[in-house]
UniProtKB/TrEMBL annotation:
EC number, UniProt record: 6.3.3.1
Pathway: Purine metabolism; IMP biosynthesis via de novo pathway; 5-amino-1-(5-phospho-D-ribosyl)imidazole from N(2)-formyl-N(1)-(5-phospho-D-ribosyl)glycinamide: step 2/2
Primary location recorded for the protein, binned into one broad class: cytoplasm
Species assigned in the record: Lysinimonas soli
Name the UniProt record assigns to this protein: Phosphoribosylformylglycinamidine cyclo-ligase
Presence of the UniProt keyword Cytoplasm in the record: yes
Subcellular location(s) per record: Cytoplasm
Catalysed reaction equations from the record: 2-formamido-N(1)-(5-O-phospho-beta-D-ribosyl)acetamidine + ATP = 5-amino-1-(5-phospho-beta-D-ribosyl)imidazole + ADP + phosphate + H(+)
GO molecular function, one term: phosphoribosylformylglycinamidine cyclo-ligase activity
This protein's UniProt keywords: ATP-binding, Cytoplasm, Ligase, Nucleotide-binding, Purine biosynthesis
Entry keyword Transmembrane helix: no
A Pfam family annotated for this UniProt entry: AIRS
EC category name: ligase
């Protein structure tokens, strides 16, 4: 006698594969757990002991959620999934440090057409490694199999995290003053934004992700999969070691440098960022040339070599840049904040609903 024709397995969902994926990822996830995490892996909800918040005068929770975008298409094309998790953590956790908060815990969500345990474990392994590097506990997640909606090799990832900060230590526009120094902090490459443009350029030129490019210095897809740089731990150390030095932080993600910096500046302030203080990595130059566009044309899409910006007190710029560079985050002075009247044609003025300051890039990039 045959089994039922309308079973879950015949509908394309393999619960056994999901269980195996959990077993394969369990050790990597557990390594992110400190004594604050209760219950281990596999519960309906993750538990995190926040008793330490009783020592705060006025604790605030910070939260952020994000995904990786169409960069996952490149990971899928190369069947290389061990870096995309770091991209996810960078996009989520590095938004939390922008307000001066320490990340506490994170959860992830993976939707796929078919659960391939080793693939899911590679993705989560990357998430866990990046969580450990940023001091974030990975307390839970979900893998959902969506046959018929996604192809067998298709997936998408998303995550959310929670952090904590003292109310009187929150960073942002309220702390920024006339004369503050704008410190640019180097990116590792494209990070996780603007890949729809990247994919369009390569498709238009007939370039495959598996092709080798002398200009890019390797296999195209592998160069593009360079993971997002993680800023949280070094920035938190600078904030702790140099009290009052950092007034605001801006994570350079979708929208580019000027728009994201404008979000953390007060109304009535403006900044001119000097392009000559840095040289965008070859990946930006090569892609722009392939697309027949200038680097300036991409400033609202790619980070062009700047992944985070710190707005710091005038007397602290040298200390901050030295500390960040020593921690493996190359940093340099790229501009200053001015508060006052100015002709603002050509400036980006706030973004994503924030009525902030005004920013524009000036000069030519260094060679």
């Amino acid at each position: 006698m045959t089994g039922p024709s309308n079973s879950y397995a015949q509908a394309g969902v393999d619960t056994a594969a999901g269980d195996l994926a959990v077993e394969l990822m369990k050790s990597a996830v557990t390594r992110t757990h400190g004594p604050e995490v209760l219950g281990g892996v596999g519960g309906f909800a993750g538990l995190f002991d926040v008793s330490f918040l009783t020592g705060f005068s006025r604790p605030l929770l910070a939260t952020s959620t994000d995904g990786v975008g169409t960069k996952v298409a490149i990971a899928q094309a190369l069947d290389k999934h061990d870096t995309i998790g770091q991209d996810l953590v960078g996009m989520v956790v590095d938004d939390i440090v922008v307000v001066g908060a320490k990340p506490l815990f994170m959860t992830d969500y993976i939707a796929c057409g078919k659960v391939v345990p080793e693939r899911i474990a590679a993705i989560v392994g990357g998430i866990a490694a990046a969580c450990a590097a940023t001091g974030t506990a990975l307390v839970g997640g979900e893998t959902a199999e969506h046959p018929g909606l996604l192809g067998p090799d298709d997936y998408d990832v998303a995550g959310a995290a929670v952090g904590a900060v003292e109310a009187d230590a929150v960073l942002g526009p309220e702390r920024v003053e006339h004369g503050d120094v704008v410190v640019a902090i180097a990116s590792s490459g494209l990070h996780s934004n603007g890949f729809s443009l990247v994919r369009h350029i390569l498709s238009t030129r007939g370039i495959g992700y598996g092709d080798t490019s002398a200009e890019l210095g390797g296999v195209v897809g592998e160069v593009l999969l360079e993971p997002t740089r993680l800023y949280t731990a070094p920035l938190l150390r600078v904030i702790d070691d140099l009290p009052g030095a950092v007034h605001a932080l801006s994570h350079i993600t979708g929208g580019g440098i000027a728009a994201n910096l404008a979000r953390v500046l007060p109304r009535g302030s403006w900044v001119e960022l000097d392009r000559s203080t840095w040289s965008p990595q070859p990946v930006f130059r090569v892609l722009a040339e392939l697309g027949g566009i200038s680097l300036a044309d991409t400033e609202g899409t790619w980070n062009l070599g700047v992944g985070m910006i710190a707005v710091v007190a005038q007397g602290a710029a040298s200390s901050v840049t030295h500390a960040l560079t020593a921690a493996g985050l190359p940093a340099w002075v790229a501009g200053r904040v001015t508060v006052g009247e100015h002709e603002l044609s050509g400036f980006e003025q706030g973004a994503k609903g924030v009525d902030g300051g005004a920013v524009r890039l000036v000069g030519d990039f260094a060679g």
